[in-house]
Amino acid sequence: MFAHGFGCDQNMWRFITPDFEQNFRIILFDYVGSGNSDISAYRSNRYNSLDGYVQDVLDIIEALDLKDVIFVGHSVSSIIGALASIKKPHCFKSLLMIGPSPFYLNEPPEYHGGFEPEVINELLDLMKKNYIGWANVMASQIMQNEDAPELNRELEESFCSTDPVIVHEFAKVTFFSDNRDDLPLIKVPTLIIQCEDDSIAPKNVGKYMQSNINRSTYKSIPVNGHCPHLTHPEKVIPVIDNYLRKLLKE
Amino acid sequence: MMHSMLDQLPCGYLEFDDNGLIRQSNNRFCKIVGYSSKELIGNHIKTLLTPGATVFYQTHLFPMLKMEKQLNEIYLTFLSNNGEKIPVLLNAERSTEKEPAVNRCIVVRMQRRSEYEDRILFAKKQAEETTEDKKKLISMMSHELRTPLSVILGMVEMLSEELDSDANEDIIEYLKLIETSSNNLARLADDILNFAKLETGNFSINQEVLLLEEVLDRSFLIAKHEAKNKDIECTRGKKSELKVFADPDRLQQILMNLLTNAIKFTESGDTIELFTDHDEQFVRIHVKDSGVGIPINKTELIFQPFKQLNGTNAGGVGLGLSISRKLSREMGGDLTVRSTPGDGTIFTLQLPLKDENNAIS
After folding, report:
1. What interface predicted TM-score (ipTM) does this complex get?
2. Which has more pLDDT, B200 or A234?
3. Of B14, B176, B232, B262, which sits with the fewest C-beta atoms within 10 Å of its C-beta?
4. Which position among A77, A198, A216, A229 bears the catalytic label?
5. CB count in 10 Å sphere of residue A162
6. Hey, is A148 helix, strand or coil?
7. Is the pLDDT of residue A153 over 70?
8. B23-33: per-residue pLDDT in tens?
9. Which residues have a Cβ under 8 Å from the Cβ of B297 and sit 6 or more positions away?
């Protein structure tokens, strides 16, 4: 099961999944508010914490009656997958995390998530101006008006479409959630894939993840950026492949 | 040659590769960020972005550019050599014709527009917050009013029961006055509360298949009683066996609003008529009065909240019709009005007839 991170949709996996189609059943999905999801299903009180997204993952697993799920999560989805595996460990075979972080803010002296709250607020402002600023009227119509399919289509036509209001709330949930205490509760084998130079999930955060997850493996790849599965799929695929080979042999 | 052309462009130009490393820039861009071309080439684009913009670049801008190949009107904040934040608008296109792929951008500085947008967004946010606060206040106030009113009405009822037949007439009249005024106030509080609920979406409509006649009869009887006190005659059109798909409580609320209004604006000795007609899909319930009527250009105004026609204040705040229309529409119907000044008014409530798909019985 491939779960996209904050900022895009399931298309992010398009360079990765073909290599695994032969040996695995591939499950791709968009979170509510991203990609071609049904925006009318969005409820603020469900998605005002990661729990709503966790429940979505568990709902998919239940609906498709999935067992031994290998959950590949990018960025915030790594944590969503981890929380889902804590709730129902028997459903998961393994967690594969790409650029994960349990908490993005700095909490000196013990923890350096990489960000001060002002940076996250600046990002939220940028997103507001890029999406909500000019699209808010359209967005609020979509949110409230189910009988305006032409507006929905307009969003759907965009390849990497996201609903501006929802993605803004998703950003807040992503960057302000603190899941450090959940890491020791993860019971399934976990692979942490880290880019050498990732300003969103810095190396020390990857190491922190590794030291707090019991059965974890840490793999750094010589790439910069936060989306190696998009920018350098040729570096990510062998890492996943090697890990799965070993895991499935055990 | 190429360089001189780029330098003549009336906008900033920037090229970077998939690793985010800057490959080319023109003079205008160098001027915007305050670096020389030499200083820029080979550096990562994130060194030119504010921290928030760096996250945006990594999570949105670059992934989208890689997949969509083109981006338009992206708002971004660059960081100049002297630490100044520079808001820009960026269009980008990705070329994969040759290896390695190259991402080309044009950059336009937008200082004033950015400030203007910020102000608009701020004003919008403030307006939304104020509206929200107002809605909450209205909802809370009407709720708080309703509670003591219920106590007053209960006490008046108890006192009335305690009084025997030879009680002082003045006392009976005073009690009646308290009761009438409290009832008016309670209706007002209910209207405001209903309106607040409708505005915030905090209400529910429970539609079911029901015999129209049952609700019409009930409402008509109550109205007839009120009309009699004012010496107004109430008449009923032909009864029917029609079944409608509606919320019985909401339907009665609308009917009572229409009938009470009709009584309010009809002179003693005149008549009010309640009758229906229907087609295959809808039933139309008409409430006709013989009052002063409504000027043609004001027939829509009366459905707007807090709007009343001049000189027609009869104890309300002008919410009843607004609420009734909203409720009608929520039930798949509508509320309209036809009026001839001096010759009365007809309010028409249209409701869907029993839909076979929703039929319970």
Report:
1. 0.78
2. A234
3. B176
4. A198
5. 26
6. coil
7. no
8. 999 999 999 99
9. none
Q: Mapping DSSP to helix (H, G, I), strand (E, B) and coil, where does residue B236 land?
A: strand
**pLDDT-based confidence at residue A142 (cuts at 50, 70, 90):** very low
CB contact under 8 A, A8 and B62: no
Among B58, B64, B76, beta carbon nearest to A199: B58
Average pLDDT in chain B: 86
What is the spatial distance between Cα B17 and Cα B24, in angstroms, rounded to a whole number?
A: 10
List of long-range contacts for B298-305, beta carbons under 8 Å, 24+ apart = B299/B337, B299/B338, B299/B339, B302/B337, B303/B335, B303/B337, B305/B195
Rounded distance between C-alpha atoms, residue B311 and residue B354, angstroms? 40
Q: What is the tens place of the pLDDT at every residue in A172-207?
A: 899 899 999 999 999 999 999 999 988 889 999 999
Give the strand order in the sheet containing B271-278: B233-236, B271-278, B282-289, B345-352, B334-339
Count other C-beta atoms under 10 Å from residue A87's C-beta: 15
Q: What is the DSSP letter of A181?
A: G
CA B25 to chain centre: 49
Active site residue A112: no
**Which entry of A75, A77, A78, A177 is annotated as an active-site residue?**
A75
Sequence letter at residue B208: E
Is the confidence at residue B163, as pLDDT, over 90? no
Residue that has been written with the tokens 């189609």 in this structure: A21
pTM of the model: 0.62
- Is A198 an active-site residue? yes
- A6 by DSSP, 3-state: which? coil
- For A153-171, the DSSP string reads HHHHHSTT-B-HHHHHHHH
- As a whole number of angstroms, the distance between CA A168 and CA A174 comes to 10
Residue type, B120: I
Tokens of B275: 């009758």
Tell me what the mean pLDDT of segment B229-249 comes to.
90
Q: Which amino acid is at B72?
A: N
CA distance linking residue B356 with residue A92, whole number of Å: 46
Question: Chain A contact for B74, CB < 8 A?
Answer: yes
Q: Which tokens go with A138? A: 């359209």
Burial of A76 per CB tally in 10 Å (0-12, 13-18, 19+)? buried
pLDDT in tens, B266-318: 888 889 999 999 998 899 999 999 888 888 888 888 888 877 766 555 556 67
